[in-house]
Design goal:
Rossmann fold; alpha/beta; Heme Oxygenase, Chain A; 2 domains; 7-stranded parallel sheet
């Protein structure tokens, strides 16, 4: 084991590039499985207030005092792991990590002295977290060989390091010269802290590899990792947020308590990982192989003409009416495309049961189903899509037991068993989406607060008309058109922090500004929190 570890550890950070091309390491898999909790922490009103610099100093002082108790326990946990290791190289690596914690504690101590802040007793949330860490490091949580304890201890400690590195990197852009919490942000966004977090993860991966971790042991590591990051969420929940009118979670915002929230989402490539039209075309090809040639010709013509159309977009200042007028040309193009599909009858003869099965097999974006399940019981959630088949969409959600989310889309005409090849065309264009949003979903919009989620140029008008328009992913056509039309797309977290800094009492719509989110888990954290 010693020789193997000497070889693995010596590679240090240089092994990262080659590891990324291979199967994700255990530490990366565990972190990816904790994406929801990471987003909950990033969008926690306490962290948002730190990033914005609006947090009351007393609240921050209390946080640092509680964090000092945690760091002390962290150092002790490293010490226990050192005692239980029988490998000299492993001991040396853990000692380096422990030393970094002592340096972090010195920073906390100097801050406390500068503030002349009396130490408060550890809170219940702090005690629960520190007791858990020390019990794991002492081998009291999970029965195992003594030599396996350091590996399990690192599994419980890794999420804290990775989480704080993540929070530091995400908040770094706000650390201006006169920011009240610049030192805190600089510490956790520094290359040194990222190196420490990476070293811990690499040591965890090395131990797992060297000790030939079993499936049961991986489950134990997984359980400890997830419990630890859950304690992190509880730790932030226990902090005071004084002197800051936080906007998050948005659905609980006091300033918006009299508004009726409505969440409207596109379907293709917003809820799903891919587009539905090729799937429906494949079903038609299975019925009649000759459809493949027709479909290829129609799709090639569509994408060629679509690209030419986008090239004709003229740069201008933001003007919603002008954008709508420009998209009228695109709308006519989309209608002509659907008319060709309709006339060609390429979608004729598909079994309705096959459409339902294909919908159920459609992969959804990570977090989409859980977010819609959670939010649809609290607010109105609806789907607005140019997809050809409402049956397909409803089937995709039915497998996740999402039955209370109305769908507004087109449909494939059928006789109850098979499609006729005709399209029942209801929502085909950007203008159709905007008009359907107001005519069929919002009705009297004055009391409603609308969040629209989309990913493509077809969504642009609806995104701009919503109180908050959220863009998922990176669509080259949407980005190009937005730039040409003077529409700004800013990261959702940055937009939130800037709102927090403005000291406004409520989230007010900003014309011509959209927000980009990394995925549904980020949207959930923004809207609903933990």
């Amino acid at each position: 084991m010693s020789c193997l570890l000497r070889n693995v550890v010596a590679r240090g950070l240089r092994s990262l590039a080659s590891a990324q091309a291979m199967e994700p390491s255990i530490s990366k898999r565990l972190w990816q499985q904790s994406k929801r909790e990471a987003m909950v922490c990033l969008y926690h009103p306490f962290v948002v207030s730190i990033a914005a610099g609006t947090l009351d100093l007393h609240s921050f002082q209390r946080f640092i005092a509680q964090d000092s108790f945690f760091l002390t326990a962290f150092a002790k946990a490293y010490g226990l792991a050192i005692e239980r290791s029988d490998d000299r190289e492993v001991k040396s690596e853990i000692c380096k990590l422990q030393q970094a914690v002592y340096e972090e504690l010195e920073l906390h101590s100097s801050l406390m002295k500068a503030w002349n802040f009396d130490h408060t007793p550890p809170s219940p949330a702090t005690c629960a977290y520190t007791d858990f860490l020390l019990a794991v490091a002492a081998g009291k949580k999970i029965e195992c060989e003594k030599t396996k304890v350091p590996m399990l201890a690192l599994a419980a400690m890794a999420p804290c390091m990775r989480l704080y590195a993540f929070l530091g990197q995400e908040t770094r852009v706000f650390s201006r010269e006169n920011h009240p919490y610049r030192d805190w942000i600089s510490t956790y966004s520094s290359p040194g802290f990222e190196t420490a977090a990476t070293r811990l993860e690499q040591l965890l991966d090395s131990l797992s590899e060297a000790q030939e971790t079993t499936a049961a042991e991986f489950q134990s590591m997984q359980s400890l990792y997830h419990r630890a990051i859950a304690y992190e969420v509880s730790f932030f929940d226990a902090q005071e947020v004084r002197g800051s009118n936080a906007f998050v979670p948005l659905l609980e915002s006091v300033a918006l308590k009299d508004r009726n929230f409505v969440l409207i989402s596109d379907f293709d490539s917003t809820c799903t990982v891919s587009d539905s039209s090729p799937v429906l075309a494949e079903l038609a090809m299975a019925v009649d192989p000759n459809v493949r040639r027709k479909w290829s010709s129609l799709s090639d013509e569509y994408f060629r003409d679509y690209s030419k159309l986008l090239e004709e977009v003229v740069l201008r200042e933001y003007d919603y009416d002008a954008i709508k007028e420009a998209l009228q040309v695109l709308s006519e193009f989309e209608k002509q495309g659907n008319a060709k599909i309709d006339a060609s009858r390429v979608l004729q003869g598909i079994k309705i049961d096959d459409i339902k099965q294909a919908g159920q097999n459609m992969a959804l974006q990570a977090g989409c189903a859980s977010v819609l399940c959670r939010l649809s019981s609290k607010i109105s959630c609806q789907i607005l899509s140019v997809c050809w088949s409402r049956t397909f969409i409803e089937a995709a959600f039915s497998k996740e037991n999402i039955t209370n989310v109305p769908v507004h889309s087109n449909e494939l005409e059928n006789d109850g068993n098979f499609t006729t090849g005709s399209l029942i065309r209801r929502v085909e264009t950007p203008i159709d989406k905007e008009e359907t949003m107001f005519r069929e979903i919002l009705h009297a919009p004055d009391d409603k607060f609308v969040i629209f989620i989309g990913d493509s140029l077809t969504d642009l008008l609806a995104l701009l008309r919503a109180d908050i328009g959220i863009v998922l992913g990176t669509s080259s056509s949407l980005d190009r058109a937005s730039k040409a039309f003077g529409v700004k797309i800013v990261p959702l977290f940055s937009g939130l922090v800037q709102r927090q800094q403005s000291s406004r009492s409520a989230w007010r719509k900003e014309e011509g500004v959209l927000y980009r989110a990394s995925g549904w888990l980020e949207i959930e954290a923004f809207l609903a929190g933990n």
